[in-house]
Amino acid sequence: MRGSSGNPLRRLALILAIVTCLSGANLHAQVLAEGGALLEFIASEQQHFSVLTYAQSYLDDQHERVSYTGTLYEGIPSFKLNECEAVAQVAVQDRFSGAIEHRSGLGRVHYERTGELADDTVYEYRFSLAKLNADEITDSRARPVQFLSETNFQCQEDRSCNLSWVRLRSREAEISETRTVNGIQDIDTKVLSIVLPMASADFAANAVKVFRSAARACAAAN
What we know:
The protein has 222 residues and is α+β, with helices and mostly antiparallel strands. The chain is built from two helices and eleven strands. Helices cover 27% and strands 45% of the residues.
């Protein structure tokens, strides 16, 4: 008499296929959920921006005193996410003016005014959340790259001219970076890590959480 249970190997294959489909659906749902949380967080961050109001003074190559005052703005104007593929833009606006102190042999001082000046820089980063090292996503307080020169900077908001950041690190140099300064692109490369500006230390700490969750969900689904 033929059994009604059918071929046990076929049944096992069917069960495995169903489990695999359900598991894949669950992982996809998790990716969408964590991605949605990340987009919601970035949207809240985009309502703020980082600001440093600064003064700088130094001696130039002619040993003349140069002084500037200005304001540096940093923010994330655009962040797009297609499942696990992200495109982020960071905009940096520097508005400043200053004077060069010219001294004559008679001890007289003449100030040459620079007028209002501006530098606009846009960084664009393309990366896969699945390829980020979740354990190495961290927050920090550090100076923006515009203030890393040896010239003297003093800032109103923070004596050390530090801003809050979240650092994203890939397993290899798998993050695409372009930089455009005053409308001219001067960098197009692959990098190991990037930093995104955050409005405060609390925002940066929360950014670590949402990026880690999204990166882990994407890694599990790939």
